[in-house]
Amino acid sequence: MLRWIFRIAILLLVLLAGPAAMFVGGEVLGKEWWQASREPAGLAPDPAETHEPVVQVYAARAYGWRGAFGVHTWIAVKPTGAPHYTVYHVLGWRAYRGGSALAIGIDVPDRHWYGNPPEVLSEMRGEGVDKIIERIDDAARRYPFADRYTLFPGPNSNTFTAWVGRQVPELRLDLPPTAIGKDFLGPATFAAATPSGTGYQFSLFGLLGLTAATEEGLEINIIGLTFGIDPKDIGLKLPGVGRVGPTPDPKRDPKSPDFY
Q1: What is d(CA 176, CA 49) in angstroms, rounded to the nearest whole number?
Q2: Whole-structure pTM value
Q3: pLDDT grade, residue 259 (50/70/90)?
Q4: pLDDT at residue 14 above 80?
Q5: Domain presence at residue 124
Q6: pLDDT of residue 193 exceeding 90
């Protein structure tokens, strides 16, 4: 019995080492939410100067203590000639107040997420992207968990982004290991394509799972925390810490034959 308790304690220490390091060494607590920056990061093309269609998927550390564990993700699109971006994401407070967690509206696409700078996970521009934008909009509006939100293990904002990725595999969406909730497939679904569409995953309610794919590499999910290795981009994936290694190129070519 003591041996099993010791093993479980060691496992918990390993799982929580990354989040603990982020909490102690980082600035995840930051300012109060109303004081934290929501300024644009300069990552999105100016719609006033960019006629072509644009799709960008973003991630930023979650606000407060949650940022030691994970990120918030969202999708921004601008059709050809549009004067603004439409942003798609899921917000827990909306569901807690009895409404839909799904938020779709005109917004600045690359805002800091309450003090935390965003990064681009996937970007598509140019010919053919308008059709992909239509499919993103359709997929977002069909999101099956819009009436609920659970911080851990999902459904949450990352569950939504992963859902859209599975419906629109052209995005080749490789969500970071800190996107807790990306592996939540639902109460009765235990296997599916990965968000990138380049492999498959098994997941037990987002608490225990295995992923194998060209884009994601090999990932093991234990109580929502992900360990992995990405041979394609030569990187490690660690709980709390995220990706260790070269940053993958977010640009996707809509003309690539792999997409059709």
Answers
A1: 31
A2: 0.91
A3: very low
A4: no
A5: yes
A6: yes
The more confident residue out of 24 and 178 is 178
Q: Name residues whose C-beta falls within 8 Å of residue 5's C-beta, 6 or more positions apart in sequence.
A: none
Burial class (CB in 10 A: 0-12, 13-18, 19+), 3: exposed
- Contacts of 72-76 with C-beta under 8 Å, sequence gap 24+, read 72/113, 72/157, 72/158, 73/121, 73/157, 73/158, 73/160, 73/161, 73/175, 73/179, 74/157, 74/161, 75/136, 75/140, 75/161, 75/164, 76/44, 76/107, 76/109, 76/110
- Would you say residue 80 lies in a domain? yes
Q: What is the DSSP string of 50-74?
A: --S-EEEEEEEEPSGGGGGT-EEEE
Nearest 5 degrees, angle CA 115-CA 14-CA 162? 50
**Owning domain of residue 27:** 20-32+44-246
* Residue 141 lies inside a defined structural domain of this protein: yes
Query: How many whole angstroms separate alpha carbon 182 and alpha carbon 154?
Result: 8
Question: Residue 260 has what pLDDT?
Answer: 39
Q: Which residue has the tokens 């010791």?
A: 6
**CA distances (Å), 81 to each of 50, 68, 171, in order?**
8, 39, 21
| Beta strands across the sheet bearing 102-106 | 102-106, 86-90, 71-78, 54-61, 119-125, 251-252
Domain count, the chain: 1
pLDDT on residue 63:
87
Task: Indicate whether 256 belongs to any domain.
Answer: no
